[in-house]
Amino acid sequence: MNFNYFxxxxxxxxxxxxxxxxxxxxxxxxxxxxGTYVLNPGDICKYxxxxxxxxxxxxxxxxxxxxxxxxxxxxxxxxxxxxxxxxQSQREGIVCEENARVLRISHSDWLxxxxxxxxxxxxxxxxxxxxxxxxxxxxxxxxxxxxxxKYQYLTQHYKGIARIVSQKNIASYLGITAPTxxxxxxxxxxxxKG
Length: 194
Description:
Blueprint: H1 6-14, H2 17-26, E1 28-32, E2 37-39, E3 47-61, E4 66-72, E5 77-78, H3 81-86, E6 92-106, H4 107-116, H5 118-144, H6 147-157, H7 161-164, H8 167-174, H9 178-190
Antiparallel strand pairs: 1-6, 2-6, 3-4, 3-5, 3-6
């Protein structure tokens, strides 16, 4: 979910130093090491992470089998939105794929901000609208594109993903097997550009 505008947008939208200070006082800056799970499958998602640097992978899993469902790069929010909103355990997990620096806000702090001012309710609504637009765009793309087009979209949308995330997890996201992705990449390398 790309929310590069998030930090700038909240400043414009809130347009109130007191509300801005309330938000900033609830954000916690953290360094997260590659391989750290910030959400384990079956846990309740208590946080939203604004990714300043690094890379995260969101997946569904049961401990034996994982399906990659999203990624979060710098300027994105890393969270399991449905899990975060309803505060019930789900099968989503989030793992740090590259050392990261994030701003974290908890569900309880976000609710406190919403109680403080309706502007935070509207800001949350804008974030949710952007998320739903992204989900709809990706749904249409994945419904109408072949594996090669999906991979090209992924590598354009997430610069450097091929060196950060394993082929197995990229293939899972694309809905193909790792050997199929390997063959696809070989074919793409052989094609003349132009």
